[in-house]
Amino acid sequence: MMEGKTLNILQTAVGKCCAALHCAVACPLRDSTSPADVAKTILSKDVPAEILTSVSTCSLCGLCNQACPHGVDVRNIMKHARSSLIEQGLLDSECYRHLWVDHDWNVFTLFRAQYGLDYAYRDLIKDRCATLFMPGCVLANIGPELVHRAAEWIASRFQDVGIVLECCGATLDEMAAEQRFADYSKKLWTYIKETGATTIVTACPTCHSRMTKANDNAGVEVISLFRLMADAGVLIPTSKDRTITVHDSCTDREGAVGMAVREMLRDTTLAEMRHRGRNTICCGSGGLVSAVAPEVCEQRAKERLKEVNEVEAETCLTYCMSCAHRLSRAENDSGNAASIRHVLEFVFDLKVDHREFEAKARALFEGERGEENIQLLNNSRLTA
Q1: Which CATH architecture has domain 233-358?
Q2: Do the beta carbons of residue 206 and residue 170 sit within 8 Å?
Q3: pTM of the model
Q4: What are the pLDDT digits (tens) for 280-312?
């Protein structure tokens, strides 16, 4: 039987959505099916293949919400439609198992364990501290050197800095595991408050968005690393002869982080893409689509790179490492003219090797060690 909240959201969508398709026109990733039609189909439990594909490959990026003149929360409808598909057995939740961040073993903890990153971060992991640096799962795994440099920079401005390597829980939310997300978030905040931290510095826009909106964050200030840097007068060191464009994260439509990054680029020749800020489009990594249709992710990344080329930018900067990795993969595959760089790569003059990371990520599940890691995932348990 369909869970009560999901049922209510889908039924409300049928009545509220007028099927004007502003959302479909605005989003280059959606088909012409209205949210009302999606909801009706899911409620009927007679779901054709095209609706299953539409829901399971939705980026959940929120651009549709920006376009709807009636304030329909299309993203939430698609997320709960996904929840219903899982409940009906039409979408297998096991495809997301490697992203179950509420379990002891997931792709992020496996990577850190296999390549010694937990040990590398040992000096920053503290039981008690005043300030917690939250770099985000992908940045912590792809760019540990960047994380250490950022932690040093934060420590020069705050006393007693520690690190929290846990995920913000975004993957649980995007796989529509609402209760698991709520339970995980509660555990995360319990841990944070046990450290005594009164400040969290985020480096991931998704972490920043979720931590600032969390119900449990009373008494804890959440601030972006890039806002701190902009306020401190840090400039991104690039030549005025180099044209830069910025790919905004979907989770930063309000511009809390993107505005700070642009302040850091004030001495740079900045060329803005058609889709930016509130109207930015997904890099391809949103919505956990890679778990069900990796080829769709690649195509979306290539569509984004077309806009980079339109403004003739030599470099596309992003402040989300997940976006940087997805766009870099597409850049390498398509021979795109612009280079994809994370902001911190410029700030600290360090280069991330996305090909090396990709090879290491694949190696997690190859050979005898890969079989062991798959068993760890299959036998993983909820974290205490």
Answers
A1: 3-Layer(aba) Sandwich (3.40)
A2: yes
A3: 0.93
A4: 999 999 999 999 999 999 999 999 999 999 999
